Give the backbone structure.
Amino acid sequence: MSKTLGIILAIFAWFTIQWTSGAKADEPDLKAAIATILQVDKEGKGHEAAIEAMQVLNKATIAQVPSILVGMDDANPLAMNWLRAAIEGAVQRGGDLPKSELITYFDDRSHSHLGRLLAFDLLTGSDNAWASKIIPTLIDDPSLPLRRKAIDHYVEVAAKQTDIEAIGSLGFALANARETDQVTKLRDELAKRNVQVDLSRQLGFLPKWQLVGPFEHANEANFNTALGPEIDLQKVDLKAEFDGKPDDGKPRKIKWIAYETSDASGVVNLNNQIGKIKGAIAYGYAEFKSAAEQNVVIRYGCINATKVWVNGELVINEEVYHVGMDPDQYSGAVMLKAGINQIVVKVCQNEQTEPWAGEWMFQVRVCDETGKTVLPAAEPPSEQ
């Protein structure tokens, strides 16, 4: 059974049994049903048992919503959909919202981000005063959708303040913003008040690269073929010379070229540096100095098919062409070692001829799991 079919059948089953009984679910039965739902997985695993479990969950009252929310802590995306449907059904059946239990659940930031967001929506729907009080405190929340609400709040506050006061509010928001669109908006708001923000540094884009290309990629043939520096990712030789894509049938030798982008969003435009060449591959190489061993996330935007390695480990692998690009389009978690870490990107341009298919570019930033920028270790000052 396909994942899509499994989801469709789950939804169908939920609607089929939604109103089968008006009896209240016993708490032990409810917990057992939640445990069963948590076993649902892709390819239909646990689907039949989940249908039976939903007969219990569809008797849940609104007072039992906090118990279902707790179940979300260990849920995979498919199980999350089932539990969310059960919560929506319990709310639709009516009753008094268990506000104190929901607030206790919401205040515990170790709970599921989606579960806390659902609790927030339930609470704000019934108590605007609570929402007004709690939103400013979400400025450092680990749930980015909740943190967004706090960032937006401080932007609204700044709009009613003097410039000096607004700079303080916007600066505070900027220090806690994690998503690129909000950071950009805050940069623009501060610029209106004559405060300049280095967007590239704020978001952790890597500006300095070594680039080499073009390599052959006619008929999209070499996405999974190791070419040039990819042949030995443990020993990237920046002095090496490679056989490149032939130029009008003539052999072409290519070497690494040093490049530093001035783009505020860290975009490396390969059309400008390698050339407007179709059916081609380019590689980029950058070094990131880490002060200590640490877990980070590589966030990567690219409009072309692409691969990214860190210290020889493949962390991003996307054979997709010309579907758009944003800074956090792809991501991969990786452990950096203390000292120099090598980042290699492979950017594949196909042979589509539409005007919008001519772009050939990428951007890379380094952050933690919440999106907070991780900057490279500072170099010690040189001795005079």
About this structure: Confidence is low (pLDDT under 50) at residues 1-10, 12-22. The longest strand covers residues 280-290. The two ends are 69 Å apart (CA to CA). The first helix runs from residue 3 to 17.
